[in-house]
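In the previous chapter we treated chains in isolation. Here, by contrast, the input contains two separate entities that must be folded as one system, with a combined length of 367 residues.
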Amino acid sequence: MDTKKLVADMKARFEYNSAKHYLKEKYSSKLFVAEQGGYWKADLNTISFLNATTSKTIVLLDLYDIPVNVNVKKLREKLVTVYDTVMTEWHEEYKELESKR
Amino acid sequence: MSKGAIVFAFNSPKVDYYSMAEYTAKRINHFLKLPVTIVTDEKSIPKNSSYKFDNVVISKPDTDNYFRGDVWINKGRFQAFQYSPYDETLLLDVDYMVNSDRLLKVFDLLQDYVCHENIAQLMIPKGEQEKLSANSFPALWATVLGFRKTEKSEQLFGCMKMIQKNYAHYANLYNFSPDIYRNDFALTIAHRLVNGHYYDNTNILPWNLMHVWLKTNLFVERKSKFNTKYTVIYDNHKNNKVRKEYITIKDMDFHVINKDVFLGLM
């Protein structure tokens, strides 16, 4: 069914906040990563910490509060890659939705 | 290690759950590349079905559950542990719309079992989380339940069986209505029991289960076999007026509460 015709027939209004909420739910769930025996979220806090530390290995608590000894470089690379991919997709779809306002 | 999905589908007088299961199974095959086992009864299986499930388990439906005057055959879900032929299994409700490979991440998390605790609702950004009762703890959702065949998982399903059998007792204990049996509530209590009444997030999926709630309708953008784009229309009731609001979504899994809406998408 053609979206434009459907919303015109129903006189529906585009709901920006719901669209933002949908995008957040969709893309934040893609930020979770299983790596080196732990489960992580590719978020700014974790990536910043991994950037700041000078150690080669470090023990981090994963999402389930399990301490995991990780290779800092490998984990950082993985999380940055996931973050970059997901946020780029998020941004692309946000631009699409914003054009409908 | 074998992986697969299992669904339960017993037709009621009003809803063709078997067709829904077939539709969902095709999407599981397509997006997750997993085989699907169905638990059903002979009466529900159509004679002219062309789709072949990986396994068909014939079981006797328990018709002793009513929702708004109609029979709701949702009991017996605890048998998933016994009936699943896989080492690692995704137990899915047939009204769960698979639109991506997201659920494969469940297998990364599997120690014993995992399920959703937190939900989100399309078009209702500030929707509330469900609780067992007003002053009780949050309910888990049996819509997506991943499990391995371990001792702890066996205990979980054993507890679900016990809770189903003694549902009125547990309803009294946790102060919810015993009138309608809900797998979500049985799972919530079973999870507490097997963890010694200690709250442990180890078995909880870290992302939210997306619901398409009541008053929300979905339209497929293009009728195709594996469409993943939808227009969502929501009736926002405010000040005695109904305002129709919409968004478009794509490539996102969701659970459809209203069976008629799900059937409309097939």
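The CA atoms of residues 22 and 52 of chain B lie 9 Å apart. The first strand of chain B starts at residue 3 and ends at 8. Compare these points with the single-chain example from earlier in the chapter.
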